[in-house]
Amino acid sequence: MNVPALLIVENLIDRSARSDRSVATAAFALLAVASLLPTLLTPIPAMGDYVNHVVRMQLLSQMGTPNANPYYEAAWAFYPNLAMDLVVPSMARLIGAENATRLFLLFTQMLIVGGALALEWAVKRRVHLAGFAALLFLYCPPFTWGFVNFESALAIALWGIAAYLLAAERPASVRCAVNTVFVVVLFTAHFFALGIYGATLGLYELWRAFDRKVPYNDVALRLATLALPAAALLVVMRLTAGSVGSEGTFWNFDHKLPWLFFIMNGYNMAVSGASAIVLMTALYLAISCGMLKLQPAGIWIASGFGLLYLAIPPRLFGTAFADIRILPAAALILPAFCSLSLPNRRWRMTALAIVGGITLANLAIVLEVWLSYRSEYSAMIASFQKINPGSKVLIGITGETEDPPFEDLTQYPMYYAPTLAVHYANAFVPHVFTETGKQPIQTRAGVRRLSIPNGAPVPIRVLSAIATGQKTALDDRALVRTWYRDYDYLYLLGTGTANPLPEMLKESDRSGRFVLYQIRRKP
């Protein structure tokens, strides 16, 4: 082929590549807008822990005012889990707790996607894969279950990692300043996200030292510079009576493998599994054909994340599902260290179709669940009109307590919905999150014995056994030993349930997923 013909072919290839990049950019923009629709269209997003966060924001925004709830008080300390608590209450005084919390979630989702793009640009000086990866995992279980503080702090961690990598070859004073700022913010926002930030940069520094044959003392100094601000903050936390959770650590490694398939959708395990299999197959083919490559630094980070996932227990310092939080973190960070080179337009359009199809399939599930809960939450809020202000409200459930209910995760958003009575009826609900070391509120002394912080709804079989004097394994449910005297109302979650205790419970309201009973106090 002569030179002019070669130039024509190269020009056509370049033009085709530019056209494909334009298509990919347009597709990304459309997917990004679509991915924000659930949050924009639903007043209360259907996420398990989310309603509890709304309640806490309302309580904090009303502290010290005539409208303050009589059962709760502020309990500020240096807790590394305060991302929302430091920002949203001030907003809630202006626009209400529901709007302020939803705005915070929307900003967090945008920050997640933007942080992934910023990290990829810091590594490659271009954006290519990270944005699509962020959209793929924007509704993974840790996010759709309402771990909002973690999600927002992970978004900050992405920006922090990007900022540090941009300063990695700058003088030590610059690196130290950048690292200190983000460590302070992340320590306050969420401790586990700080750990992800520190692990990523630590692994990067180890790769850098190995790759450049850096002397050991220089490596130790750079790692110490990374760790020193966090160590100092831990000392301050201990001196000021702060803590990281209070429920301890629980080790269980039975579900490490299944979570690799169930991490892509927080509501439908079948869709999540199918999405994961399609994505893994596509990644395997791309790697085996040499089209997808991981940079050496990325190999170190990926290996480190793999070891962390295997080593971290499901509950760490009171943080539930700690291990699976590694998976979306890896999915958001590793694409920045990947390079993808597809040979022609057919491959590029196929890859775009796979990513877009998985994103839209998962998004369709989220939209279906969230929109279906608009009426359920409206019915729940309407039912609060039938509760006397200042009442004590217990949450029960028809099935066995499991948090979350893996047999049908679409039930999970209802688990804590009755806690909104704290907001709308100035009520006491024992299931409001008030765990020491996590939330800056606590129940007042008069009702503290009833508090079940982070506790799931109580099975009705347990409540029935207590009320009728039957023997039952009370264990930690001893807090409801005299529920029929302590509470005024019972929300029983479930569908199609008959009154389990007609002599003790009087039905006041009913909807598709709950029944409200007034408790006839038993002497």
Helix proportion: 40-55%
The separation of the N and C termini measures 99 Å
Structural class: alpha/beta
Number of strands: 9
Uncertain segments are: 6-10
- CA radius of gyration: 25 Å
How many distinct helices? 18
Give the neighbour order of strands across the main sheet. 6-4-7-9-8
Instruction: Estimate the mean pLDDT confidence.
Output: 90
For the biggest sheet, the summary is: 5 strands, mixed
Q: What is the helix/strand order?
A: HHEHHHHHHHHHHEHHEHEHEEHHEEE
Description of the structure:
This protein has helices at 3-41, 50-62, 88-95, 97-124, 130-136, 141-144, 148-166, 172-189, 191-212, 216-239, 256-259, 269-288, 296-311, 326-333, 345-383, 421-424, 460-467, 483-486, and strands at residues 72-74, 292-294, 338-340, 393-397, 441-443, 458-459, 489-493, 505-510, 514-519. By secondary structure, the chain is of the alpha/beta class. It has a 5-stranded mixed β-sheet with strand order 6-4-7-9-8. Strands 1-5 form a two-stranded antiparallel ribbon. Strand 8 (505-510) and strand 9 form a beta hairpin. Helix 8 (172-189) packs parallel to helix 10. The N and C termini lie far apart (99 Å).
